[in-house]
Structure formats: structure tokens, C-alpha cells
Amino acid sequence: MRPKDRSGFSIAIICALTVEADAVILLFDEVYDRYGDEYGRHPGDTNSYTVGTIGKHNVVLCYMPEMGKASAAGVATKMKFSYPGVSLALVVGVCGGVPLLPYSNTPIFLGDVIISHAVVRYDYGRQYPDGFKRKKGIPENLGRPNQEIRTLFQRLQTSMARSDLQNDIAQYLEVLRRSEPRWQYPGKACDVLFDASYHHKHHQQATSLKCLCFNSESPGQICQEAQESSCDSLECDENRIIRRRPSDAAGASIHFGKIASSDTVMKSGEHRDKLAKDEDVAGFDMEGAGVWDELPCIIIKGVCDYADSHKDKKWQAYAAATGASSAKAFLRYWNPASSEATRNWMRGNQQFTLYIRKTAERLTEAFPNNDHTKRNLWRSYLPHALSLLEEDEFKGQREQYIDLLENIGDCLSTLILCRVWHV
């Protein structure tokens, strides 16, 4: 059913690149508002939105103005005010992939999909004279996924569900491939993996006087010209290729694992492999950590490169297509029931009236100055407040507590799992 206002949208999809958003929009079952004119935005929200449906879900697609954690966090924060009903954010697009998962020896190929419910923020740490030292235990610092997400992940990793998900992805990917030439499979000849220690650089003396590739004091340095050149133009040694794609069949395998997130692009095979071994990560992106602290979040990314110095954009559109197809397939299995079940329990036990009164009393007592900057305290203290705003029994008392209600909506707009608050 078409929502009457912005509060009726429960799923957010956040994309950093235009090509990622294009793939997602093409898989909408219906577009309600292409440019955000009909539903509008909260005052002060500078985000841009497209809204519609994917399957049974009302979805808001949010565009990021630029890549990076800070941009992602800003977009997610503003979106919560405009779309307070969002209970799950999907960060959808492309990422760098670890070619061989170190603990399972599972290969990842270009175009495969990584679905992650855990994030490692690998640029978090301290800079010492002898180098940068990462802080350990970052996934816990970024928060643990709620039980509903963890349970679904366990289900999707069963053989039957994984097979169904794979079939759904193939179906949606075919829809995209038929729609435009840019979503086509690039072919196995474009999927090669170089030895991690073999850098993408000039291997013969360049004509440019600014070339750093032959600096004996810094052998890892690569000049700007080399960074912008293809492997063909640099004549990267094919004898240093350690793996080629075994099959030319189009398609995408699914991998469940951690995503390493940072404001810097991972373009080092050696650092990639070390982080994969140390933290058991499957891929690298620049947005996941930014959204993670703001909304319940799942990251769904198509692998467009191997996160090494040889990365290019040949696979970007196809990886965006596999990521978008996987997001649509994933939403078929997302059936949150906690909020409605809790509200029904409260109605059946005649708890609403008492709850509303206690809420208002305790709000005034706990936050006499309407201080709503401590978001975590608000969320834990009033887990039902947002949903109550739309209940008939609460609307009758709106005038008495109107300022307080606005603060509740602002501060609790990220809640996904309603819990029973014992008053």
C-alpha cells in the first residue's frame, strides 16, 4: 500500500555512486516519487531521495554526495529525521574483495557479492613514529547487530536458503542485463589476480621526470601517471598473474563475512591480505562504518576489484548490478515482526494509556531541559516512543506534550526492534 507520508517507509537503501543507485532504481517494482517532490523532506535535510517499493517493502533510496564514512554518517543522520519509520538500512553498491578467504580458503571472484552484518573500521588507531597501529576489537565498538538480523543471517547461510537467494539474484541480474548494455558481464579475460607483492607501476624507466616508481629509497611508491594507467599500458607482467577466472559463466556467488571500512581506498594487495588474516574480513568499502552507528545496517556489495594496485573500473557496473540484485533478493527474506507484535501485546493488556502517562512523566523528570543529544540514553530509555506517536490513544494527548513528542521523534527515529518497557 502506498504510504500516506514519509513515516510509512521502513527500508532505506544508501548508495555512494550514481551507477549503484541506477541499478537499484531499475529493480524497484514501483517508483512513487522519483525526485522527492511529493513526500518532501524534514527542514534542514539536504539529502536527495527516490522512493518506491521493492517487493512488499516501502523503500527510500538515498544518494550520497560523496564517498566516505563522514558523508555516509551525515546522510544517515539527516534521513532519520525525514523518514522516522526506517528500521533497516542497506548500504548497497560495490567494494573491493579479498580473493581468497584465509580461514575457509573460499575464493572470491569479481562480480561476486559480499553480504555483511559486521564492520571493521581499520583506519581507527594511533600513529607512532614507526608506523600506524590499529586498535583491536573494533567490530564490538561499532555495535552488535540486533537479534532479528543475526537470526536471518543464520537462516540465509543454510543450503536451501542460500540456493534460493542465489536463484533470485540470477533472476534480477538478468532483468538488469536485458535493460542496458552497461550491466553486461565483462568476461573472464578481465578477471585476473596478480601476486600481492607485484605492484601496478612503471617497470621500465618512464619518460616523466616526476616518476617515483624507481625511487630506491621508497620502493613501494607509485607515480600518479602509473596510478591512472591500465595494466596493458604499463605492460604488467602476466607471469605474475597467480589466478585467472576458471569459468566464463556470468553470475554471482554469495559470501557472508565482515566488511573492512575506511575513508581511504584499499589499493595494496599486501595490506589487504594482512587485514584479511588478522580480522577475517571479506571485503573493503568506504561507507559501511558511517551508517553503522546511525541505523541498523546490512552491507550488500558486489566485488568490482581485488583491493590492490591493479584495480580498475572494468567491473564496476556489473558489480553494481550484482549488488543491487542481491539487495532485492535479500529483502524477500526480511520480515520484521517485532514492532507489531509488541504493540498488539500492549493493546491486549491495556498498557497503552498507562505507558503514555508514564512516558510523559518520566521524560520530564529525566530530561528537564529537553536535552536530547545523548541519543543512546534516549533509545534505551524509551524504546517505544516513536511508534507511539502514530497511535490513536497517543494522538489525543499530543497538544499537551507537543514539544516533547517532537524531540522523541527526532531522537528515536533509528529504532528497529521494539522491546517491552516495564513501567
From TrEMBL:
SUPFAM superfamilies hit by this protein: Purine and uridine phosphorylases
A Pfam match: PNP_UDP_1
GO molecular function terms attached to this record: catalytic activity
InterPro entries membership: NLR-like, Nucleoside_phosphorylase_d, Nucleoside_phosphorylase_sf
Keyword annotations from UniProtKB, A to Z: Signal
Biological-process GO terms, alphabetical: nucleoside metabolic process
Keyword Signal recorded: yes
Cleaved signal peptide residues: 1-23
Domain Nucleoside phosphorylase: 11-129
Record's protein name: DNA, SC003
